[in-house]
Amino acid sequence: MTVVTIAREGKIAVVTVDNPPVNALSQAVRQGLCEAVAALDADPGVAAVVLTCAGRTFIAGADVNEFGKPPQPPHLPDAISAIEMAAKPWIAAIHGSALGGGFEVALGCRFRLAAREASVGLPEVTLGIVPGAGGTVRTVRLAGVEVAVDLVTTGKPVRALRAIELGLIDRIVEGDLRSGAVTFAENLADELPVPLSLRAAPSMPETFWENAEGAIAKRVRGEIAPLRALACLRRATEVDFASAMAFERTTFLNLRASKQAAALRHVFFAERAAPRPAPLAGIETRPLRNAAVIGGGTMGAGIAAAFRDAGLPVILIERDDAAVERGLANLKAIFDGAVKRGRLTEVAAEARLAGVIGSTDYAALADCDLVIEAVFEELSVKRQVFDELGRVCRADAVLATNTSYLDPREIAQGLPRPGRFIGLHFFSPANVMKLLEIVPTPETDAATLATGFALARLLGKVPVRAGICEGFIGNRILKRYRAEAEALVRQGVAIADVDAAMRAFGFAMGPFEAQDLGGLDIAFLQREGARAAGLDVPETLGDILVRAGRKGQKTGGGWYDYKPGDRRAHPSQEVDQLLHGHIKPAAALDAAAIADRLVSAMAREGEAILAEGVAERASDIDLVEIHGYGFPRWRGGPMFCISPGG
Ligand code: 3H9
């Protein structure tokens, strides 16, 4: 198949890249582009060239599949240089996304035109690398240092309208992009913009770079690529074009071979595989036109907000009018928070809230496509809910439980047509956290399971199928992680050392700080429940603290002490006294060894989970940890960490 073709529209040549699915810059595409430059330069009938792409997007970047292998010529910087220095001016016509190498190709063109819905960006740092074909060197020359620093070190793409404001593209083409670009090419002025490689780079004072470095280092917590990207941008302003290109390329090639890049590639492919599991290919899903949530507490309101964010009308059911009011107030607080953080306009927030109907009457659910139960974690309460749902809902409505620990099979007992029942485990705050554990029972039918995955796609979540066991995948590993952290403390390692080690590893918080924030009492009550049911649950150090009234920040202390109104954790003498007798004499362990112990424990639990078939793939476990529990993405997840490449 020819991946780069040339067509003619009078004196304008239209070069089309057609390399599904996303027109990645494989060796064949690079070769095709170089050959097109040569052919069109040699053609006296051609005045200008429009570069366009077939399919859903412009060039979405280098081919990530080639990153594990030695680079093959022609190299992308050379292909782009050929475009930039071509005798005929090239004009990029961007639809979909021009990302990474794709945007770098556009930077080599004299003009960048885009469809209104298009976006452009340099997301390389999200793959643990820096742009490798002039992205840093040309962007500072095109849009200035501040824009370039933001674009390159965050990796976040920007929409066309914003890209114009930032100076990253020249104009938006309304209507048909190809013909609009051809018309633009036909009417080029004699004087063309100077190629970016020939423009001078702006310079910035030392303090700018120092501040930027400080801010980025704080944000990235051990991830290297964003800081290396900043170094490339700085170099781009300090030396000539060719030297800056050489520095960028060396940095790119070094990072490409790094462990962090391998980890981030692993996550990239795991995330893309997750929403569409092969066994569900071709299975028709049930409709998802509206949804209902039973329970307006923190979790229920978060789920309702996630539905509203995806545009679904929502019914929120509570047991009495006061609880309905509280549920709606919880939702309002979520949208108000989004307004405060600048993520939503006031008008949009009002519209989100207006799309929610609060009710105490289950009859309101008669025409719902999907109902999620998010009530108190107690089997009898949940069963009552499903009794009602079984009575009032349409036979083909999907009925889901958001339980974290209960057995979905028991919740579904007695439900008519149990094929439509499924566990959908959201993570708090449910409108923010990306993970969705999808837990079918043996009776869940394929259409319901496929609908669970379709819902995840609609909500922009990362779905992972989990089998039934206590805590499913995520909370089961969390339990093991906490137990191992306590084992270290019993062995004499200071609580604060454990937390500091996990922060140094890349978590936002260590295991004890996180418990103090969330509250120690929830897990305690669960253990007590299990003990009351006759199970042998050994006493944890956390139990000792809760019995002494130390439930976390909300009680002024948990594993640490807290001063009123201050979230900073202070090592606690009271905790030392309470745990005295359970802890061996102080034993220092270095941070790397602590992290290794805890991550290995997580991975061992992951291996058991895989062996039992609770998770289907090791990469699914990594996604659970990254998207539900704050495992640093650039470490690839616990299973990746113990793999030969990790
Ligand atoms: C780079 O460019 C480095 C340069 O600076 C230096 C060079 C020297 N390669 O996401 P989707 C596959 S670094 C290979 O579901 P969407 C993906 O695996 C690169 N394959 O689609 C999936 O395969 P399958 C910088 C890729 O419509 C299929 O395409 N670029 C690549 O939801 C569909 O993907 C990026 O980081 C790739 N680069 O979203 C862009 N990209 O069907 C990454 C995708 O077998 N890509 N695939 O499962 C994206 O952000 C999204 O794919 C995009 C489309 C927004 C383009």
How would you describe what is shown here?
The structure is a single chain. Strand 13 (370-373), helix 15 and strand 14 (398-401) form a beta-alpha-beta unit. 47% of the residues lie in helices and 12% in strands. The model has no long low-confidence stretch (mean pLDDT 96). The chain has 646 residues and is an alpha/beta fold. The longest helix is centred in the C-terminal third of the chain and has 21 residues, at 591-611. The strands form 4 sheets. It has an 8-stranded mixed sheet with strand order 12-11-10-13-14-15-16-17, sandwiched between helices. A 6-stranded mixed sheet has the order 1-2-3-4-6-9, sandwiched between helices. A 3-stranded mixed sheet has the order 5-7-8. It contains 26 helices and 19 strands. Residues 21-22, 24, 56-57, 60-65, 76, 97, 99-101, 104, 123-124, 127, 131-133, 135, 272 line the site of (S)-3-Hydroxyhexanoyl-CoA.
**E-strand count:** 19
Specify the number of helices: 26
The radius of gyration over CA amounts to: 28 Å
Q: Main beta sheet: strand number and arrangement?
A: 8 strands, mixed
What structural class do helix, strand and pairing data support?
Answer: alpha/beta
Roughly how much helix do the residues carry, as a percent range?
40-55%
Strand order of the largest sheet: 12-11-10-13-14-15-16-17
Q: What is the straight-line distance between the termini?
A: 36 Å
Weakly predicted, low-confidence segments: none
pLDDT average, as an integer?
Answer: 96
Strand residues, percent: 5-15%
The hetero compounds bound to this protein are:
(S)-3-Hydroxyhexanoyl-CoA
Shape: globular
